[in-house]
Design a protein that fits this description.
The chain has helices at about 15-20, 25-35, 40-45, 50-55, 60-75, 90-95, 110-115, 120-125, 135-145, 150-165, 185-195, 210-215, 250-265, 290-300, 310-320; strands at about 50, 75-80, 85, 175-180, 195-205, 225-230, 240-245, 270-275, 280, 310, 325-330, 335-340. With about 350 residues, the protein is of the alpha/beta class.
Length: about 350
Amino acid sequence: MADQPKPVAKPVPSADRILDLASGYEPALILEAAVRLGVFDILDEHPMTLPDVARRAESSPRGMRAILNALVGLDLLDRFGDLYALTDESAAYLVSSSPTNQGYMCKHVSRHLLARWMRLTEVVRSGRPEGVVNEQTDGGAYFREFVEDIFPMSYESAQALAVALDLKHARSPVSVLDLAAGSGVWSIALAEASPNVRATAVDWPAVIPVTQRVAEKHGVADRFRFIEGDLMEADFGSGHTIATLGHIVHSEGEQRSRRLLERTFAALAPGGTVVIAEFVANEDRTGPIGALIFAVTMLVNTEAGDVFTFGEMAGWLRDAGFVDARQLEVPGPGPLILATKPD
């Protein structure tokens, strides 16, 4: 009998990826420090030397050298001899005056986000966070601090929604119900698309002043009605054409989301459209990675929050009375989910 061939041992992969994951907090905190110190705004004027940037940022040369060189390594700055300069990417997304600026959110990593993640091991064991952000007592103050800063994250998606709904050609009044309005990004973009849009923005009393300020900034506040209250108790009115639930389902969890969809159904006119903006997991929850990580964010911040699949949310919509649940691909972290109230 011939000797059986010995199995070939697979090479052990490099540990680099594990070590990179273990130090994943470092780039986020470097980016936060750079945004808070105004590094990208300073370099937007023209390329500068280390002493110039340190002086303008009122920082030590030692500290600024470490930050600038790390940003070069992260491909967020370029270096030409002694001069540091913006890349195309940082000029577009990290300069505060840029219309596509996303840098405001970077300011919240250590002060609002990281502290809750520090208790992740304990939260996994218990299944319960120490505090929650989807209840009015703590959540109002929490969201008031940064809803305006995350406006750019959804603005392009909201503008794409306005195009998909063909609001530009609306010839009759369009009533928009913006639930958990936050910065008002969804209703503001729809109002900007057509003078026929009138919006009702609903959120906690601590947040509504922010919604109002951002609507005023965009020149559409005169077409808004602002309602303070909890989503399960506030008067939504009735006869709305469109209702938006912008990134609220993930914090509410299944049972409260089902109730919210039932209330939304009642507030819409026949033929009206509900729009859900969410991080959407695929049906077997193997991706996308952004959605799966966001589910852990919900674990450390809420009692029942999670990331859901299209199939799950389509089932809730159907149970609430909606038909034709569908996905709309837009710029942003996930597709929008639309459904219709039957005539």
